[in-house]
Structures are given as C-alpha cells and as structure tokens.
Design goal:
Number of strands: 8
Structural class: alpha/beta
Distance between the termini: 93 Å
Number of helices: 8
Oligomer: single chain
Strand order of the largest sheet: 1-4-5-6-8-7
Radius of gyration: 35 Å
Strand content: 5-15%
Helix content: 40-55%
Order of helices and strands: HHEEEEEHEEEHHHHH
Length: about 300
Amino acid sequence: MEKYVNIMLDKGFKTVFGVKQVAIDFINAVLEGERQVKDLTYIDKEIQPEVIEQRTVIFDFLCEDVDGAKFIVEMQNCPQRYFFNRGFYYLCRTVSRQGETGDDWKYDLRPVYGIYLLNFSLPESTHWRTDVIMANEATGKAFGEVKLKQIYLSFDRFNLSKEECKSPLESSMYILKNMNIFDMSPFKEENEAFKRLLNVANLAALTPRERAIYDENLKNYRDWRATLEYAAEEAEEKGMKRGLEKGLEKGLEKGLEKGLEKGKAEGLAEGQRLIAINLKKQGIDIGIIAQCTGLSVEEIDKL
C-alpha cells in the first residue's frame, strides 16, 4: 500500500511543489479559464530588504512563467493577526521589483499572483476559495487588467468528497488535503497531472536524507498540534470555569436583588394593611382610607 507525504509539513510541501510540472499543473488548475502556464522558472525566493524597512521577505516558492507573470505559492498552517497584510505586502514587493529592469521601463507590469494554501479558515470568508483583486467599488468588477491577485485556498473549509469533485482544482485540493491518510490512490489513473502529483508525493520516493528531514518535520508538526490542542482545551476549561463563577455571582446578585425587591414590596403592602385597619377602627370613611393607602375598597372591606 502506497503512503504519501503530508502537505502541511515544510518538507512535504516542498517535495510536491518543488517539481516544476506539478507546480504548473496546480497553478493551471487554480487559474483555469484565466491563465495557462506553459513553463515555469523557480527564481530566488528571497528579496533583499530595503534600507527603510530592514526586513527580508521569504516565500515558500516564487516562480515566473515565460510571459513574465510571477507566482508566489505558500503553505500557511497557523493564522496570524496580520496574515492578509503580509500576503499583500509580499505581492507589492514583487510588483515593485519589476521597475528594476532599466531606465527605459514604461510601467509594463506583469501580473503577480499569490496562491496561499491555508490549514485554517479565513474569518472574512465562508467558502474554501477566496479571490482578492483590485475592483471598482461601485460595480465589484476588476479594475482594468488584473495585475495583482491573491488566492486563498482553505483546507479547513474544503469538505468535498471524491465523488463531489468536478474541476481539476477540486480534485487537486481533495488529494492534497487527504493524501497522507489515503489507503488507495484516488484520481491517479484518471489524469496525468494527478498521477504526477501522487508519484512525487510518494514517501517511498524520498531519499534516506529527505525521509529523515520529513520525519523530523512530522514530529515537530505533531508536537505543535498537540501544544495547540492542549492550549485550546485549557483555555476552554478556564473559560467555562470563569463563566460558571460569573454566572453564580450574577445569579446570587440577581436573586438577592429580587428578594429585596419582593421583601420591600411585601413589607409595604403589610404596612398599608395595618394603616387601613387602624383608620377603619377609628371610623374613617372607607373611600378616604382607600385614597390614603392605595388599597381597594374591596380589600379594606375584608380587613
């Protein structure tokens, strides 16, 4: 039985997308009907920092096709506070580098795509795929030719079964999300792209050194997941305990408040009855007693 890498691991991700044709197949599945990549070149993924910012931008993969379009392909396991801003910053830096081509450059920008595979859900989206472009606010349509695009693909929100997968991207997402737990190889015989993907992702194809790195990644990933789960359980337990304490405090406070209100009301009513009884004994007109105490004539008659 064949076993495959976990795409969530650094070594698993780079084993799969480090193969050019597999990366081409995946990018074409993502951009189906929009762009067809014929060839790719992996370029230096580290952009030297500008003097002002003093920070280095590093991607998982930065590729360029024969027409000059660039593709950032990244795997992100954990949500970050400024994740969207970071991705946007990466793309803007990649766009700005195009101006380094020479003095005669006339702002002939080539498209830049950021393709982010996420092991979590975007709070701004309810779907497993989210495309972000520059658009006309009034119409919602792309403003001019798309030069900068972010594509977020959430494994956390992708819940299609094998039978429900219809497009190449849906099938690719299904394979990438589940292949480390496959007991068989779905789609492998149906499509050359899927066959290539599963062949390079086969654990048996790794060299001993690559397997050692992968196993270390897997250990770290499991430790990280266990730490996160423990932290979440502890936070939930503390939250429930604090919520219970708060609830009891609120309940006691509310009960005491209601008790005091009830006691006050009952005391006031009893005082009114005693006043009415004394006035009645003195022969005061019942109508006057009613006006003075707030009791009804019927209640006073019964006293």
